[in-house]
User: What shape does this take?
Amino acid sequence: MCPATPASPLPAVHRVLALPEAGPLTERFGRTALTESVRAILAQARRQLADGAEHPRQDVDAAWVLARAGKALEAAARPSLRPVFNLTGTVLHTNLGRALLPAEAVEAVAAVLAHPSNLEYDLERGRRGDRDDHVEGLLREITGAEAATVVNNNAAAVFLCLNTLGLRREVVVSRGELVEIGGSFRIPDIMARAGCRLREVGTTNRTHRRDFEEALGPRTALVMKAHTSNYEVQGFTSSVPEPELAALAHGHGIPFVVDLGSGSLVHLEDWGLPAEPTPGDTLAHGADLVTFSGDKLLGGPQAGLVVGRRDLVARVKKNPLKRVLRVGKETLAALEAILRLYRDPDRLAERLPTLRLLTRPEADVRRAAERLRPALARALEGIAVVEVAPCSSQVGSGSLPVDRLPSACLTLSPAHRRQGEGTALKRMEQALRALPVPVVGRVADGALRLDLRCLEPADEPAFIGQLGQLARALAG
Ligand SMILES: *Cc1c(COP(=O)(O)O)cnc(C)c1O
Assistant: This one.
């Protein structure tokens, strides 16, 4: 302590720790952490005094210090990665963790994490097995592929296929498909890192059969098609149909590889949703390998799936990079549980959260908005006007980019416009994000919009339960 400081008005550490309220805090965080925290709070108060705070707090007593120390420990104990309410209206939100797993998949993950498993062990023969075996059969059954393998994500799947089949050779792609997916996945960059030479053909809006024909030669390793999953080229456009591209590639004795991106495993039209190509259809069109994500429309864990010809999948699996990009047992457990749900399409929309959220009827979302409006209006009384309004959700994660799903939201408009609408909106957004289960919405047209599509009835009590804290935060 600074010797020039007059007799300290601060309590001693041992006095703070002797308070009866210190007992439960010690129990929860441990004596060492609590003592450290108390010291830190005292040091901070001491600095403030030394800095010449002319009116030092009158209430810097032992109880105040202990309460502050407890709060600091609580904040530090909160996990960094935790659940939020996704009310952005984007169902597969990459920044918010994409697809949600149903209880059966979560249970399957918990079981293999807490216990030894037959991850790479053939229980029948009592010898080493292959981790892909747990899902390959299901993937073959669902897509009609001869073989399948799984890696960390679809970016890894594309990279691995290119590196395996196209190293130091040319890969022919249409200029209309040199896609960039958010978060630094760009076909030309992946291709360069995979050691392939990109041979672009055609133009942004039109690519013809003859463009491919002219490019194919002895240096060509494969023909690639990338699904333009996060944009659509409209107007004067032309592309070569998959069966034609496949025939062209096969005529030159080279494979045709399709990066499908999202790759729904079912025909979404059957559920009244916009159509999205499936891996099964793409294989039927003549693709030799198809890659797609596990956590987009498939509705599973983060993973990259490669399905297609047995000999090519075998080559992909022999690439040492397969070992670099392999998935853990938690991914396989979740993926297997999810793929099993596809065996019963009649109940898929009820059991698979992604499909359930995407097919949730507008009227159902609107009823939820009407149910929740009074509680939110009460919590924000005098701060914001809360109304039910129509809105459009989107699929997200580069799936079905131009299609919108009619939905309903709660709009939160600042009550006092003269105070600066932007500031009031920002404070409200911040307060919602600071809740124990942070609420993430979207600002548009001078209001904060909470699209309720992804707030399922089972989660409503948790949502309403924390609104009291919102009122307190905004009042303070
Ligand atoms: C999403 C996407 C990827 C990347 O997949 P991740 O699973 O995010 O790694 C690659 N290609 C296309 C066409 C995509 O839509």
About this structure: The chain is about 40% helix and 20% strand. The chain has three domains: 13-77, 85-94+357-475, 103-351.
